[in-house]
Specification:
The complex is a heterodimer of chains A (137) and B (208). Chain A is built from two helices and twelve strands, in the order αβββββββββαβββ. Chain A is mainly beta and 137 residues long. In chain A, strands 1, 2, 3, 4, 5, 6, 7, 8, 9, 10, 11 and 12 form a twelve-stranded mixed sheet that branches. Chain B starts with a helix and ends with a strand. The chains are: A mainly beta (137), B alpha+beta (208).
């Protein structure tokens, strides 16, 4: 049981989701490394995703949370735990600028209070839903 | 109790705010760039709720599709936005939405052998993988409560692995195909221990 829990956790931290759609240029900043996003790019905890002036990008996290970004947008996923078997559930994302479309996944269904999307001027608590948010420069 | 009082105060505050602010909000929505959110209907119908907490702890929530909140530096407040504005601001983000994840439940005769009906579902799973340019797949095995918990942990994993191998042998090549087990801990139909229940002998395949 312990071993199962630990391996599930390690796995969550490795790959938390994938880029599914891309139009135009976008980058993924992972620690010190910046790489061009492509369809199929893996996302890790703490990665920042940045879309260019005419770009848009869609991604899906392991718990089926769907995030899609409009142009000139920057987001990061700062905390992510998805191990329903041991009730470890947490999603904390941040939008620094631009536009984001959010559709709830399993984490929001199982533990709504565990999901937050932060903006520079307010923290959004998500109660199983879909919304769009814009952060103006 | 304190929370209740705060929330009552906030409501009164917001009511005053929206009464004075309505004309202003309409004006603002038309021109100046600003931060705001709009609640939308869920893909399956129905609408949830969002609660916004501002920098100073001020709170506001929306529960109806189409309702909006301005995310102002001095806290969230109700906002009027029209559909054209939403389309202008969010059209690109909405269009970038990938196909939603699809889930399939497969059932077992016992052991690792799929029922005939579930075997016949495999082409639909392969098609769901094939439709997506960058699919990732999770396969979670479950058991009923017959036998001890640790043996069922293993049986759930064996079922998930069996489905993974079947999909691979049919040519599925997703980015990732992950087989795990919940054993008897997560029954579809709750039962006492040592209970035969075909609906709990299952594997859940999610194609993202």
């Amino acid at each position: 049981m312990l071993a199962f829990g630990l391996s599930a956790h390690a796995e969550d931290n490795a790959r938390i989701g994938y880029v599914k759609t891309l139009s135009g240029d976008a980058n993924i900043v992972s620690g010190e490394t910046t790489s061009a996003a492509r369809v199929g790019s893996a996302l890790k905890l703490g990665d920042r995703i940045i879309t260019g002036a005419n770009a848009s990008l869609g991604l899906i996290l392991k718990d089926n949370t769907v995030l899609s970004l409009g142009p000139d947008t920057e987001i990061s996923v700062d905390d992510y735990l998805y191990a329903p078997a041991r009730e470890a559930l947490r999603l904390d994302a941040r939008i620094l600028r631009g536009t984001l479309h959010y559709i709830s996944g399993v984490i929001a269904k199982l533990k709504p209070e565990a999901v937050t999307v932060r903006t520079p001027t307010g923290t959004i608590g998500v109660r199983g839903t879909r919304f769009v948010v814009k952060v103006a420069d | 109790m304190r929370e209740l009082m705060n929330s009552t105060r906030n409501k009164a505050f917001l009511a005053r705010r929206s009464a004075i602010g309505l004309a202003g909000a309409l004006l603002i929505a038309g021109c100046a760039p600003q931060s705001y959110l709009v609640l939308l209907e869920n893909p399956g119908g129905g609408t949830g709720k969002v609660l916004v907490t501002g920098p100073g702890g001020q709170q506001a929530s929306v529960e109806r599709a189409g309702d909006a909140l301005a995310l102002a530096a001095d806290g969230p407040r109700p906002l009027m936005v029209d559909g054209d504005q939403v389309q202008r601001d969010f059209g690109a983000a909405l269009a970038a939405q990938p196909p939603l994840p699809e889930s399939f439940l497969l059932y077992f005769e016992g052991g690792e052998r799929l029922t005939a009906e579930s075997l016949a579902r495999l082409p639909a799973i392969l098609a769901a993988i094939g439709r997506r340019p960058a699919a990732d797949v999770s396969i979670i095995g479950h058991t009923d409560t017959v036998g001890n918990a640790s043996a069922n942990e293993g049986l759930g994993l064996a079922r998930a692995e069996a489905v993974r191998k079947l999909l691979e042998s049919e040519g599925a090549k997703p980015l990732e195909m992950n087989a795990t087990s919940h054993g008897e801990r997560n029954p579809l139909i709750p039962t006492p221990d040592e209970t035969q229940e075909p609906r709990n002998r299952r594997v859940e395949v999610t194609v993202r």
